[in-house]
Amino acid sequence: MEKSLFRYIWTHSKRDQMIVCAVVLASQPFYFLSLDLPRQIVNQAIQGEAFRDGNATAPFLKMTLHWPEWLGGGSTLLFDGFQLSRVGLLLGLSCLFLFFVIVNGAFKYWINVAKGVLGERMLRRLRFDLFTMVLRFTPDALRTVKSSETATIIKDEVEPIGGFIGDAFITPVFLSMQALTALFFIMVQNVSLGLMALAVVAIQLVVIPRLRRELLVLGRERQLASRELAGRIGEVLDGIEVVHVHNAYDWERAEIGNRLFTLYDLRVKIYNRKFVVKFLNNFLSQLTPFFFYAVGGYFALRGTLDIGQLVAVIAAYRELPPPLKELIDWDQQRLDVQVKYDQVTQHFAEERLAPLLEAKPVIVDDTPLTGLLEAESLRVPDPHGGMVLDGAAFRLELPTSVALISNGGTAASVTAQIVARRVSGFGGQVHIGHRDLTQLPTSVTGHRIAYAGLDPILFPGSIRDNLVYGLRRKPEVGAEDARWKDRRIAEALRTGNPVDDIAGPWIDYDQIGVSDEDDLDRVLVEWLNRIGMGTEIYLFGLAEQMDPERYPHVAERIVEARRRLRETFQADDMRGLVVPFDANRYNDQATIAENLLFGVPVSEDFMGRNLALNKDFSGAIDRAGLTDDLVTMGIQIAETMTEIFEGLPPGHSLFEQFSFIGADELHDFEAILRRRRRTDVLGKDDRVKLLSLPLDYIEPRHRLGLLDDGLRLRLVRARALVRETLERSGMRGVEFYDPDRICAAAPVRDNLLFGRVSYRVAAARHRVAAAVSSVVAELGLREDIERIGLDHEVGTAGRLLTAQERASINLVRCLVKKPDILVVDGALAPFDESRARQMTDLLIDLFEKQSLFMVVPNDRQAQGFQIQMRFRDGQITTEKTGGPARGDNPKPETASRIAGEVV
């Protein structure tokens, strides 16, 4: 980055800065004329100087061009003007003054908008430049840089820099021109008053900035403290599990409290200093009017200054303090922003960034990474001053399979990271054929080298999004007809951002050998099954919602599977396992809310406690005559729950079993019951809260005996009224059940069952799951459900998945892009030794024609590799083993047998 903020701004925005500055200069004549008009109004119209010779009228808007003496002198009349009476001249000059106010306001409006747009464009450029440098952080830098601090810098700390960019050149030009114009006007009226104003202005411009220097130091300390606070909070969030395990709440609260006090103390010091400076600045601003009234009044009494001039001088000076104050504030902002910019450049220092190899104008050699892999004089220091590798060397012919045997040391992992281009701070050279591995552009290494490390990194999104991450390639820019796209591209070009459309065809289907998205999904599902994650992805698919428009043929087959399952569950040995949804019957295994809605909520207004607050729903059950019965049921539930939960600590298992009332709500319902006992009348809010309780009631699960056949029948009858009311209101808050079509808001499992598993039958869920699997396999639906499972969200950093699932997805992500070299460094650690051995054998067979480097803990896990690499005293030795040579045909049953065992 540029070390100078102003150089950075000028480099990327000089054209826009010059245009706005030109408009600023063009606005000054209008500003000067607006300052002179009060004098003309007072002298010519009010005091009548224009009518002094007894004239009944005076010219208005008379324009005369006076020539200087060196051009011959004289004058040229451009326009005679309009002859107006005294009142007419007063109104004409006043309207002219109003016109110039509007013109000056329009200039200020355009200039401020232009500054704002310019600042936002430059802020966008700056943030993008910083993010681009984040992508260039070396692996060594990433070990020391806190992600939360970097994100805070890009999101928050550069915000004031972006706000200042629009003001960097324009504001001082604009304010200086305004101040100079006002001062020049005062000088024209009276030199003495102008000199006094100039003296006070000089004091303000010299003294005030000096007094504000300490504010910069305090501001710098506050910014660093704020950044450290954000970093610390990020650390606590990342390690929240440790906080829970070791009960470190008090320590963390005290530590954050101490940091907050430091910030508070700094802010108080800043306020004290800032308002002292503000007081002095305001005093100096009011000192000049004192001189004007005293000295200017004296001149007016002596007759050397007329009243109109004095009024105009005072009016002109009234326009002087605001730009001066803003100039001083701008100077303060400049210094403060420069400090922030310096800290940003320090954070993104050059030594933390990898070389920008893509910028070199060379022809990229994207041939396969095969041939002689030769490493010479490898030197890697450890944190304790020793050497992990000290002049090590090895030579391998690629493709091959290599086991890097760690035996508890770090040298194997470091060597694997060197081969994968994950370590930059090492000595020596690594070549593949004639190419230097460290100088290969990332477009080559990202395509031909894959690295699966110990800590899988998954991004928020679906499993599919993470699996195809390595297949995303920059699409060709096509013709974009939509106007907003044209504007987007134009803005991207002006701010140095990429013009690529994120909705474009980013996935490189050719790399994986497929033609479209459907084929890609099938390949991804196949890889997940081969790696041993088939069961998990199938279960994810059953739990996911399905879009019928995206999978129309699957929707039809699920409806068919629903009918098959209904027939299966009607058999003698499975009757009663599932209670189906029937529009004319009450489903005892579903909640009262589900029975009333007979569908799945798709809006927050119909979910949880919000359902009782919904006016359409509550109005429907009120017309059905159910409100009082449900409120009474709510009172019974509240009385029972408060009695059961009395004295129980939060988190007790009973709270989960009877999930009507949470531990934090218990006191609220106790208060409602007390109020009812006192007055026997419930308020509106209390009735709504009580109404919400029975909506979650399931008789076979909660067994409070609150439902009888009569109430069940009334609830079923109210179902049609609820649906009619909701449809008439136009709110698409519920997707209703239909036995002949898919409910897109419900998961696939619920669409298959179209009912609820019975709580009364032992092991019902296991038997139902087996029946579902059987029908799914019979109809050939498993692969389609697994494809739907690819839509499963992984959560932040993959936290919605188990460690084994994260490791499997990370490994498949490496496999699907078909790399020339796969480096596995601890990726199999979450699996037990037997499963890790099976996956290792699978990888060896899969990489028959590519290279596989795997860090293994011992000699036992190194079996099957062509080459075993050992590490001792900073040196590397290689040993060929009896593994199958490249080009040999392995036993035909090996790959299929291992894949079958893994599945």
Automatic annotation (TrEMBL):
It is found in: Cell membrane. The keyword Coiled coil does not apply. It is a multi-pass membrane protein. It holds the Pfam family ABC_membrane. GO terms for molecular function: ATP binding. Keywords: ATP-binding, Membrane, Nucleotide-binding, Transmembrane, Transmembrane helix. PROSITE patterns: ABC_TM1F (PS50929). This is ABC transporter ATP-binding protein.
